[in-house]
Amino acid sequence: MNYILFDDNNYQNLLPLTYTRPVASLRCGILTMNARWEKMLHEKCSFKTQDYLQVKFPLTIADDNIFINGSLFCNSDMIERIQSLVQNECLIHDQMLVAARCAKEKAIHFSIDEVIKNFKTSKLTTDCKFLQNPWDIFSMNDWAIRFDYDLITKGRVSQPLASTNQLIGNNLFIEEGAKISCSILNTETGPIYIGKDAEIMEGSIIRGPFAMGEHAVLKMGAKIYGATTLGDSCKVGGEVNNAVFYANSSKAHDGFVGNAVFGEWCNLGADTNNSNLKNNYEEVKLWSVSKQSFVKTGLQFCGLIMADHSKCGINTMFNTGTIIGVSCNIFGPGFPRNFVPSFSWGGAQGYTEYKLAKASETAQKVFARRNLTFDEIEQNICKHIFEQTQEQRKY
Predict the structure, then answer these.
(1) Sorting pLDDT into bands at 50, 70 and 90, what band is 395?
(2) CATH class for the domain made up of 136-392
(3) What are the pLDDT digits (tens) for 23-55?
(4) Among the residues of 96-237, which ranges form H helices?
(5) Deepest in the core among 118, 245, 298, 375, taking most CB within 10 A?
(6) Is the model's pLDDT at 109 over the cut of 90?
(7) Alpha carbons 13 and 372: distance in angstroms, whole number
């Protein structure tokens, strides 16, 4: 069976994080959405996403195809029902298309509206969880880490924890090559997963649920509260509470971030802090890029959402409920505005456009530090986002 994870219109609600990736490539828990599907399906999945992202996230079409909503969290009951679909049948949950099965010709011209209109429709009655808003990523991270921990570690044996550490509880799994020294790990509040070749330096204190990917580094004296995830090759220090870092991002110094999401290739200067609670304890509203207005989150604790390639200088302060677009460079005293459009340069004193050539030059240097190439595919994606967000940069 050929499995394809598709974006529906909900990808717009997940901007700016989905400017640079399909919905199914978002990380919540230990795994990305697509990695979780692939692990449970025992098959590789391809992507049906925005045209400008399709080269980086290719689409594979076969004679027999099952399309699955990329914002959907999978479980075993759901997989059984999806795999039982027949040709030209689809599953619906609360008017959302969950999955559909079709032959090659219809897959080439796949359209959500056409599928719902013309296919045999069945309702999915099992419990469904979707990523529908940026804040869902940290709000659902506790549940997702626990789910992924059981999925990844079932039937496997952890590497031993060095005797210099203190372990509270038993839900710890350490992959091969990971190093942990002189740290306290409390798994009574949730499981802790340490990826291959990751490192936890001396003096770190961690309360689960917590996960770190391959080659990630937790700096000396870090204080981590769950539910927190560090993606592959992230470097994190200071105080962190319920935050998700995507791959290759750094918060290597002191400072607090909480109830937050950081895309790939972000870097936070020393003593960067974000507020996650309003002084009047009211519900936090967050700027919606798609609606071009503030929306209610239903949350009392909501901090910072920062999209890929964005950076901030030392001592940067972010207010409660702040959205930072793709490839922003923020610095200076005071609180930046609580929505900073993609490709912005400046801070509380004002902004100018971060020119595409300069932003690309920085990205090339950042990639080179990890022995990677900011290639033509990456450049074209950034160019498209730069042009797509032009109207937002009316400072």
Answers:
(1) confident
(2) mainly beta
(3) 999 999 999 999 999 999 999 999 999 999 999
(4) 104-108, 112-118, 136-139, 141-153
(5) 245
(6) yes
(7) 30
